[in-house]
Structure to design on (303 residues):
């Protein structure tokens, strides 16, 4: 497959890939809607908003909401009263709706392009997203739309955006995992991964490398927000050692049939990741430059 170049091609590939990924997305990425999931989401908000989240938000709009990880956890935690969730992928929107119904939550959903939002101006007091900006072909237009649909004094908050330097650093544990994967599977007595009924076919899997089109320096995100008219722009880095550990383990696990990976390994991977998150948060994130962390968080306010 040739490199994707035009904005329409990028949108089409994102739609196709996320449609086929929707059914297995939550299990692949360990999406949780319990105490751990709520703690993770609230922790990201508090890093950039501090006590600003204590009053909550009346109406939120999530961009690229996927299966609902951010919005549904924020509703369960009582931070968001009414949520509208959008995604370019109908498959993701359908899975999000099913998750909301299972959790007993009432959520508005819409298939929407972030660069042309189907909502009236000044409709929301929070526009948010997790791991979405790096998929969007026209970020100038997208930020202009975020500004348009926000109420005065409303906020944007985006988390999980890959940093340019952090993304390069993360490639090292990924490559190491690929070298060690056969020995790891033998030690774990895990079977190699194979295509299963209902999973994306090989062509769909190959789309994954085309959906991530940006990695950012902190100044990039600050610039997009400032040019769109936002003020009080803040960018913070998060997860350094946790992401090295997480990507190494995730790359190993991707080579195995998940049903044959021992539970003791899964518990080690989860507990180790959470432990290193606490190390990053308590010791490193306030002392090191945001650019070297894997993830960037952005918040800004509409005047």
């Amino acid at each position: 497959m040739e490199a994707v170049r035009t904005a329409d091609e990028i949108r089409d590939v994102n739609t196709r890939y996320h449609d086929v990924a929707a059914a297995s997305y939550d299990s692949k990425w360990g999406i949780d809607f319990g105490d751990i999931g709520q703690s993770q989401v609230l922790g990201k908000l508090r890093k950039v908003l501090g006590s600003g989240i204590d009053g909550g938000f009346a109406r939120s709009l999530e961009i690229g909401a996927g299966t609902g990880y951010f919005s549904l956890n924020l509703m369960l935690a009582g931070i968001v009263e009414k949520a509208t969730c959008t995604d370019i992928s109908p498959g993701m929107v359908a899975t999000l709706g099913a998750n909301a119904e299972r959790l007993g939550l009432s959520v508005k959903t819409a298939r929407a392009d972030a660069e042309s939002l189907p909502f009236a101006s000044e409709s929301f007091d929070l526009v948010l997203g997790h791991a979405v900006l790096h998929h969007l072909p026209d970020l100038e237009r997208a930020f202009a739309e975020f500004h348009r649909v926000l109420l005065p004094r409303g906020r944007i908050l985006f988390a999980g955006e890959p940093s340019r330097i952090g993304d390069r650093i993360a490639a090292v544990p990924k490559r190491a995992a690929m070298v060690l994967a056969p020995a790891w599977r033998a030690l774990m007595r895990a079977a190699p991964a194979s295509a299963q009924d209902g999973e994306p076919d090989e062509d769909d899997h190959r789309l994954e490398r085309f959906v991530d089109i940006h990695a950012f320096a902190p100044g990039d995100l600050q610039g997009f927000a400032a040019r769109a008219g936002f003020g009080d722009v803040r960018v913070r880095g998060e997860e350094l050692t946790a992401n090295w550990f997480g990507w190494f383990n995730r790359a190993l696990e991707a080579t195995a049939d998940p049903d044959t990976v021992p539970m003791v390994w899964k518990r080690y991977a989860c507990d180790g990741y959470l432990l290193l998150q606490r190390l990053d948060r308590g010791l490193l994130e306030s002392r090191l430059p945001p650019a070297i962390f894997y993830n960037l968080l952005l918040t800004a306010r509409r005047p």
